[in-house]
Hints:
By secondary structure, the protein is an alpha/beta fold. The chain has 2 domains: about 5-265, Queuine tRNA-ribosyltransferase-like (TIM Barrel); about 275-370, no CATH class. About 40% of the residues lie in helices and about 20% in strands. The chain has 15 helices and 16 strands. The chain has an 8-stranded parallel β-sheet with strand order 4-14-13-12-11-10-6-5. The model has no long low-confidence stretch (mean pLDDT about 95). Zinc ion binds near residues 300, 301, 304, 306 and 338. The site of zinc ion (ZN) has 8 residues, from α12 and α14.
Amino acid sequence: MALTSFDLKARDGRARTGVITTPRGEIRTPAFMPVGTAATVKGMLPESVRATGADILLGNTYHLMLRPGAERVARLGGLHKFMNWDRPILTDSGGFQVMSLSELRKLTEKGVTFRSHVDGSKHELTPERSMEIQKLLGSDIVMAFDECPALPADRKRLTDSMRLSMRWAQRSRDAFGDRPGHMLFGIQQGGLEEDLRAESAEALKNIGFDGYAIGGLAVGEGQEAMFGCLDFAPGQLPEDKPRYLMGVGKPEDIVGAVKRGIDMMDCVLPSRSGRTGQAWTPRGQVNLKNARHADDPRPLDENCTCPACTSYSRAYLHHVYRSGEMIAGMLLTWHNLHYYQQLMQGMRDAIEAGTFVAFEADFQATRALGDIERL
Ligand SMILES: [Zn+2]
């Protein structure tokens, strides 16, 4: 019997719910993956992340290869042991962050050479090295190494880049080899162009992967353009494998993506915004920095069961944020991750019940109310 699998339980329109099974645990889909960039979800203990309902974390190959180094993590027992998270971990390939963070990049058919944004040291990342690093880390879901052009890009640039990524996808597949219990995902590219996305999907299907990501979106094209692409891109990928939309997003982006057939997503937004005094609730975004909260004894969200909402007032959250206290980021990150996981659970339940249309209408109507009236 295979050690990993993806089983669809229900469909509602194009939305799907199911379970990815790995030796380290099950991932309920649609799934939201909190981002643990440097082997930590900033401000959260792993058991707290789990308590919000997360089944899987995302780790960043680019950051971990530079500091503390993949070989060191391997010597210390692998990423799960190193960061004290024993459930599934997905690692990205490093390709996207090399392009967005590093300096003095040089891109060739072989791969990318670059200087570290940490200390200026010189590194090379190729499909083969990316597979090696992700193996050293012990990642459960490994991403193929790809190149992602910033949008807008002209058609020639998009085409050349996509075809290079498909050659790298084959090299990633070859280098990954046969690793029972671990999954390798290919990444579809092609910008917003339907025919390029179709060509990319065909190339990936011919190589054969355990799951398929949609890359190159959420890079500044806007929600309307992204949804336009998601109206066709998921349908170009195999029906019976997980589909992962990389780097998305805001709650409304997530609901729209699930509606269009996406099974997995990741984003730094809930944790990053928690550290900048921003909270997400069913009624939209709340800025705890705002002076209107200074005398407000009410919880951030009276229906939320997270520690920030059950034990503290808006006035307290406002105070600790304005005072630069660490607990501000900790509580707001916990709340935001809790809200995101509640949103995913709500969507999984609605898909199973066949009520996703009503769920989405309620989601939008509640957001339209805006935050509670000021006191
Ligand atoms: Zn809360």
